[in-house]
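Q: Sequence in, structure out?
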Amino acid sequence: MRDLLVALFVLSSLPVAFKRPVAGLMVFSLFAYMRLQDLTWGFARSTRWSLYVALIMFAGWFLQRDRKGPVWTFRTALLFFLPVWMLIGLIESRGFLYAITSKNLVEYTKIVAIALFSMMVIRRREHLRAMMWIVGGSFAFFGLKNGAAAIASGGSLYINRGPGGMLEDNNDFALALAMSLPVLAALATSETNGYYRKWLKAAAPLTIMSVLATRSRGGFLSVVIATFVIVWRSKNRVAGLALMGLAGTLGVIALANTGTLQRLETLKNVQEDGSAMGRIAAWKVAARMIEDQPFFGVGFNQFQRNYLQYGPRVEAREDGTRVAHNAYLQIWSEGGTPAFVAYMLLLLISIFSVQRLRRDANRIYERSWIQSYCTGFEGALVTFLLGSTFLNRAHFDLIYHYFALIISFEVIARREMANPLSSLESKKRGVGGTLLRREARGFGSKPVMKRGFRNTDLTPRGFGAGGGTSLADKQES
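A: Exactly. Output:
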């Protein structure tokens, strides 16, 4: 039955994806993050639904008369540069024929292509809002499901693998869940519907429980980082930090004598932990690769193939590893210094751009959806920046999608901040308007005029995404 429902859902969405490519991107993202196909057991599980949706939405975009290209920034150029440089490096290390037929490189190129496509079609606030709901809601689904199961098991639940795809490894799954926490916070503080906000607030602690159930030490550190960013950006940091400490204490008590706590206790004695020492050994091997091949690296996805050439033979997995287990050393050793620099610039410029946007928004609004989304994106990026230090995730689908969404977010937010009344004047029906909007189908119980993002009459300093009255207008009255 589930297989039939998934098949019907995809087939019915294809005409919509062709006519409205942004809708196709939403469906594609739903399969990428919620992994609908992995919730089935029959033919739908092995069918490449995402490929069909992608082909249709790209065709629909190409045939549009008013189609738009990506938003051109320095970061956009970096996104184009990375797969091209990886191709050149792989040709240099393995030859032209191997490079152009490499499945791993093709998959990486697809990841970047989807990110660039997102910039082409997400040009309105409603599009960005829907995408945030898909990303946050998909991981909240797993957070609610696995978190409730973890509580029911008394903390003994062990999630040794994720739902599939990029989330199959339990460490990757834990990192993605941790990155979703700031997104859930952004949605909870920007939505007006009380039901949505309660659901999102309930999903956050259960998502943390799900991360702990993976028993991933990197995931645990990522959750701590994500929670700290949310608290630091809250209105009352002191109360938030106190609550964070209390929750941590209660969590330790609740997890006492469980496999989760015993796993986390290994962080105290790194020298005695074989897995941790294996990571350190892999980092040393990566350093030798970088020293020997600083410009092109050893080739895209060629770390394992060259491991024995630069490091001691690994007889048992407990004594070592054949992956870098560090996103930055991974891309540096495989792609060379130019790829490493481009990757770090993407990360750091994205973080600084969001922070600059927040500062600009703070001059206009007391509270708005823009500031909430800044917290969501900043928290997700910082969580990945530190969490991927222990994971082989330089080619993580989610982070490249965030790079693109942030560029679209900046364009949308700055357009509203520069001319806050424009969308209201151009939308006579109120749909998508800055001050008032009609609740879109799926986001409200009935189509009534109301504020689309959380706000009160006194909160905004100016017209815009938060709605309300500006200080200047109040002074004139």
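The CA atoms of residues 158 and 213 lie 5 Å apart.
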